[in-house]
Amino acid sequence: MKADRAPLPTPGDVLRRMREGELTLLPIAAALVVIWIGFGLANPTFWSSENLVNLSLQSVSTGVIALGVVIVLLVGQIDLSVGSVSGVAAAVVAAGAVNGGWPLWVGVLVAIAVGVVVGLVLGIAVTRLGLPSFVLTLAALLVLAGVQVRILEPAGSVNIPFDSWLVKFCQAWFLPTWFAWSVVVVVVVGFAATRWSDRRRRRAADLPYASTATTALHVGTLAAVLCTVVAVLGGARGVGYSVVLFVVLVAVADVLLRRTRWGRAVHAIGGNRRAAVLAGLPVRRTVVSAFVACSALAALGGVLAAGRLAAANQETGGGDIFLTAIAAAVIGGTSLFGGRGRAWSALLGVLVIQSISNGLTLLDLDTATRSIVTGAVLALAITIDTVVRGRRPE
Amino acid sequence: MTSPVLELSRVSKSFGAARALIDVDLAVHPREVVAVVGDNGAGKSTLAGVLAGVYPPDAGEMRVDGEPVRFADPGAARARGIATVFQELALCDNLDVVENLFLGHEPVRGALLDEIAMERRAWELLDQLGASVPSVRVPVAALTGGQRRTVAIARGLLGDPRVVVLDEPTASLGIRQTAELLNLVERLRERGHSVVFVSHATSDVQAVADRIVVLRLGRVNGEFEADAATSEDLLAAMTGARPVRRGGGR
Ligand SMILES: Nc1ncnc2c1ncn2[C@@H]1O[C@H](COP(=O)(O)OP(=O)(O)OP(=O)(O)O)[C@@H](O)[C@H]1O
Ligand SMILES: [Mg+2]
């Protein structure tokens, strides 16, 4: 009976699996489509390729930071210092290259190393001293914001030359059309092949396996999404290098989180720390690694922000960036209570937030309205997280 | 009689001022079901924790196959063939059955987890235990108390341990599930495992145990051959009405 082919999922199935915590991405993907249709109807400029290219480039820096936040939330902690870390990283790159005369790549490596060190310190303080991450990372936020100002002294802002590779990477370099399409083909074929071989192995092992129709549905969906993205963005400048970097980082993080022992440990610790200890998992090491990954990604996000602005100033990474990144992770379906969420929620969450911001700007609405709407969406997301999916804090 | 697989001698453990275990002796022989009974707070879970490597004892010695051991963490106890199913089960509600079963011991294929091997093994194991789990891919949060317990026990059996420690395994079970669990304990013995069965329900214990050790306020307050012990004897030893020592002459 076990080896019966699973038929195509019925709507009831889909709803049940959503509640049980699978398919966490479906509601948010649906919400994104609704938002896009709404803004597009309100102002057709929203749908223009040029605007969507901008939207994609705007999303990268915050998205990379949000990806780190997803990892820390999964392990059952929080990191409020990600904005400041990104600000320090941006300052290090800019000040190092312009004032210090370092080659740009050295500045980038130093900035990411700073992130790694911050993550190590936070992780060790949380695991060895048992400090609550909420307050500890709040302290780190303040300290690093001060450090950032010091690095940028006396001018308070440093411009990065427009012809540097970092600025070009974030603003000017796009995949050639033929290359983008080749990537789509390779990815779709690769995905289909993996699915197919997985299905064959499951069948050989006498385990339930996805029906041909379901497999085709998944492959078809992926192909449709990728083709739409490449076609639409290709209508203007195309798919930016930094956008590719972001998507690749999310995909790699997704595999690490779902398919490796480290990722399994991350989920287990976030779900039930005591159970993880009793199962003999390396709890401390895993929590530290999550903080390191988060801060390193935040630093990379800061570097990308500097590249996109062609400058680093006291506002880089400041203000509500850390809140936006955390909101993106949660809106994307990652639970604040630990142990539940997907790497892809960083991508979807940041797209929702940036789409709202971008759409409201096109409608000539001010920052106040954007803040109110984004806040309302966040409230909605956390309500879904807590009530509809039955995820309550223990 | 064979020599014990696992032996504690004069083991003590305190939590601050609370003396949870005082000079406890315990021997577990191959293919033997040893029951540990006692009232609430008698130190049963602490004893299970010592066997599991969760609490290092303050004093006394623990021996596996006659060789002194000191477990630094639960992984070490498991590596020496002692698997513990904790009173609170210690499952991760957010993970599914397979993920919980293999937590910390996942087989890998290259760098990635071998989900297929895990899923197969999970079905085998659950079938052996006669478990009725709807799917091995549902989060354990969606299972009933009995199913969760079976999953926790199955996890204990994964590394083919020599001694299985069950802390209050019948606590949240109904009548039929309790009978199934007692059956399962019999099967564990038949398959060659030794079992330490911790409980405060004397009737459950009398049904399966070979030997019964009574804890009271952290001390061993009586040891009985199961066939020779009456419920009155056990109750008396548990409540301290009178200290008894009978049988125990292995
Ligand atoms: N982690 C701990 N910290 C402090 N005291 C503890 C701890 N664990 C147990 N104790 C104390 O040790 C004593 C024995 O507790 P234990 O949990 O071993 O009893 P038990 O026999 O398992 O009881 P129950 O039937 O309620 O499960 C109790 O007085 C308890 O308060
Ligand atoms: Mg107990």
UniProtKB/TrEMBL annotation, chain A:
It comes from the Bacteria. InterPro entries: ABC_transp_permease. It holds the Pfam family BPD_transp_2. The chain crosses the membrane at residues 23-43, 55-75, 80-98, 104-126, 133-152, 172-194, 215-233, 239-257, 287-309, 321-339, 346-363, 369-388. It is found in: Cell membrane. Coiled coil: none annotated. GO terms for molecular function: transmembrane transporter activity. It is a multi-pass membrane protein. One of its GO terms (cellular component) is plasma membrane. Keywords: Cell inner membrane, Cell membrane, Membrane, Sugar transport, Transmembrane, Transmembrane helix, Transport. Part of the binding-protein-dependent transport system for D-xylose. Probably responsible for the translocation of the substrate across the membrane. This is Xylose transport system permease protein XylH.
TrEMBL record, chain B:
Residues 6-242 form the ABC transporter domain. GO terms for molecular function: ATP binding; ATP hydrolysis activity. Pfam families: ABC_tran. Keywords: ATP-binding, Nucleotide-binding. This is Monosaccharide ABC transporter ATP-binding protein (CUT2 family). It comes from Sediminihabitans luteus. The lineage of its organism: Bacteria, Bacillati, Actinomycetota, Actinomycetes, Micrococcales.
